[in-house]
Amino acid sequence: MANEFSLRCYCYLDRMQPQYAAFVGTITQGDLPTSGMASLYIEMAPGNEVFRMVDIAVKATEAKPGAQIVEREFGMFEIHSHKQADVLESGRIVLDRLGLSAEDRIRPKVASVQVITNIDPYQAQLLNRWRRGTMLVPGQTLLVVECAPAAYINYACNEAEKASNINVVHVASVGRFGRMWLSGTESEAITARDAAIRALENLEGVDG
């Protein structure tokens, strides 16, 4: 198993921000998180390993599972709790059972960044058709960040909201790439961009 298993993402959110937590609540199929909770995302390959890892994580502490997803290539799960210690301990036990450390995760890479000013009303309407967060208003600046592995985008979004007065439009964190769409003024978008990129680049890991 050691030769086959890949710890694609291991990212800890110390405090879920209000908008990010609210967005997650619109898409989660498990226990609903709330603002202020600590959260942990773990993505792996092969995907079916996620079922065993979730079982280990939720039996270790009182942390609750919010997501358990298996798609064609990868598996991902999320746990959260008001107690940071519970989330950290569940994560530690999962890593211990795998014989790995957090530094064995794949280091995130920023795939693309776009800052689009003065969004046109028609483009805003196209994005609003499928977004699950705040509506994009014409004239705002749109920030789009893409990274790999995908689950790291959750960490990037949460850190962006910490640093700026930005609006969370949508986050997609399943598949080969993760993407987030944030909106606000141009200065807010740039602040959010810098915070997200800095957060991802500061995570240690191995090259994927």
TrEMBL record:
Subcellular location: Bacterial microcompartment
Source superkingdom: Bacteria
Domain BMC circularly permuted, chain residue ranges per copy: 109-208
Keywords: Bacterial microcompartment
CDD domains in alphabetical order: BMC_like_1_repeat1, BMC_like_1_repeat2
GO cellular component terms attached to this protein's record: bacterial microcompartment
The protein's name in its UniProt record: BMC circularly permuted domain-containing protein
Biological source species: Candidatus Desulfolinea nitratireducens
Lineage: Bacteria, Bacillati, Chloroflexota, Anaerolineae, Anaerolineales
